[in-house]
Amino acid sequence: MLPDALVGASRSGAGVLLYSGEILEGDGVRGLMRSAVARVAGRYAGAILASSEATANAYRRRGIEATVHYPPIKPPEDPDSLPARGAELRERFGIGPEERIVCSLGAITEGRGQDTLVEALALSIADGHDWRLVIGGEPYDRPADLAFNEHLKTLADQLGVGDRIILAGRIEDPMVLYAASDIFVNPARVAESFGRAACEALLAGCPVISTRVGATAEALKDGETALLIPPDAPGALHKAITTLLRDPNQAAELANRGYQFVHDYFSVETGSANFIQAINSTRSDPVTATA
Questions:
Q1: Domains of the chain, residue spans
Q2: Which of 8, 81, 106, 279 is such that its CA lies 20 to 30 A from the CA of 88?
Q3: For the whole model, what pTM was predicted?
């Protein structure tokens, strides 16, 4: 975590622009390390761009200036082919065209909260609402995450929903997973610095449910572009999923408004122009953006 490149570039006389995509807060030793990184960044960077207000505030609370620059979200390539490719993915997973799919995507780790989704599935089935859960992603190669991956399997078996869950592993094209699914869920329990996967899902036309953690409420508007719920609340998650599965019109409206919001505010064109402007603030010889 020591920013050697940042210090070295600054000492060499180069203009330094730091893009921060992590909320540098926390408790204990990890919190102290993050605080140290933030202070070094504030000393040596000519300008700091943050992925969200939540990320920027970690610097501002330490008296360090930071400008918010939301990451651009690239739309899917060849969107007309997505429905067919989504259908192929369903077939590969052995999921019928009439079955409902709820998906998530991210590293298999406790902070991502996939166990909450497993518990929500069990509540839904007990309540008479059947759907399939596809979890995309892999655990990091470290004991805690490998153990959590096994915990998910054990939990699913204990709750009697193991046959309704697919641990899909690495997904080559996330847009295809979103296209194959009826709902995308971000069940994170740790503060997120933005929430890219949810925005990508909206660009693929998939309605979104997310926990309200970190910067997710900046990227997603509750009841307008997504449904936001508390973390670690399988009951609330079950209710939100059931609501959208029961009311396809509401789900479609959320997805449509979400698509338009992401398309308008997080476009690649806008992001590129803002980034060039930030680069120029640290250089004596301005550059121009080219498409």
A1: 4-72+267-280, 79-265
A2: 106
A3: 0.90
Report the topology of domain 79-265: Rossmann fold (3.40.50)
Residuewise pLDDT in 10s, the chain (291 residues)? 456 777 788 788 877 888 888 888 877 887 788 888 888 888 888 888 999 999 999 899 989 999 999 999 999 988 999 999 999 999 999 999 999 999 999 999 999 999 999 999 999 999 999 999 999 999 999 999 999 999 999 999 999 999 999 999 999 999 999 999 999 999 999 999 999 999 999 999 999 999 999 999 999 999 999 999 999 999 999 999 999 999 999 999 999 999 999 999 998 888 888 888 888 777 555 445 444
